Amino acid sequence: MSGFEVLRNIKKLKADIEVIIVTGYGTLKNAQEAIHHGAGDFISKPFNIPDIISIVNKSFLRRRYNLQINSLVKQIKGLRDLEEEEQEGLQENFPLTCGENINPQRGASEH
Questions:
Q1: Please, are residues 31 and 42 in contact by the beta-carbon 8 Å criterion?
Q2: Domain boundaries, given as residue ranges, for the chain
Q3: pLDDT of 49-92, one tens digit each?
Q4: Which CATH superfamily is domain 3-92 in?
């Protein structure tokens, strides 16, 4: 099984996991393909330890930011759902009939 197959299988199981490809075949085409399939980064051998540490740290940060974004999106969706429920409740409790005057001041002075 190739590294790209492993990457695709990992992403099928858990799409939001950070994957770093380490390879001895560090061509631009391979790097582009890895990124296209969801790799967070691509490292060619030989590599040095400070580069690995930096890339792993960036991956942790990217993961944390993605989790925060997903949490905010869920909160926004929850607020939208709550707002829709409140609107539906208002419509059920205070239905307006067609042509009904919603301005109480104007309606009162016309009588």
A1: yes
A2: 3-92
A3: 999 999 999 999 999 999 999 999 999 999 988 888 888 777 77
A4: Response regulator (3.40.50.2300)
